[in-house]
Amino acid sequence: MRMKFYASKLYLLLTVVTLFGCKKQLFDNPVVPIDSAATNSPNAVVVSGPVANWYNDTTSVLLPVSDGLPINPAFKKGNTTATIVILGSSTAVGKGASQKAYSWVELLTAKLKKDKKTVRIVNLANKNYTTYHIMPTGNKVTNRPAPDVLRNVTKALSYKPFLVIVNLPTNDIAEKYTDTEILANFTKFRKAFENAKVDFIVTGTQPRNFTDSLLRQRLRILNSKIVGGSPVRVANVLQKLSNEDYSIKKYFAYTDGVHPNDKGHAIINSHIFNTSLFKQLLGYKTAIMP
User: Is 25 in contact with 208 (CB distance < 8 Å)?
Assistant: First the structure.
């Protein structure tokens, strides 16, 4: 009898331990997959309970509010008007927007004008460009494109800008360049800007409907590295525009599965405006939800 009693107590103890040991697995809130780099996004959300999956999010991103002050006169750098130069590929050209006015560059220009921030925008972007095309004049790498001297970092600096925005979201990965060489190119143009005492902002990668899932995952990995390098300088749009597999969300996609539509361009514009450095330089503060 005594042995049966002890056996019953042991069984009860094991049952209790098992249940408590499984408590975390059984009762924790569902885990929402958030890219570590996404916490730098202006629309990052702290998850405190069950919510819709991040890849179902199609909400707009609030544009920041102007401080009502003019551009710092020092930003003219000898120009009549303070100048921003755009370097990039077809998204920066405006591909995917139904009209030029709905491209992110034109949206940015229009908001600055509306807010009485007098700025000249020089857009040097060109379709199919990679980081190699915008390298400083004289850069030479075997079996890689030579810099375009009319649309590269050196040309951009010739306009004496106070800010350069670089938008090269997917073509380097499409060409299967390694992360190492892509980031080395980022380092080269960063040093060129720093030496010229010119501020710069880069956009991270964008989703793209690559048939190879490994290339889509590379978009995520490279984006994290870019954001990690300098969060205050990066407009981190990847997660907002992506499906779970890092293809482009239909809601934000142009018909080619590569470029953003009007809504996607608006997202890129809002993320650039919400970049910490952009707000600091241009005089904006984060908008508060009504």
Answer: no
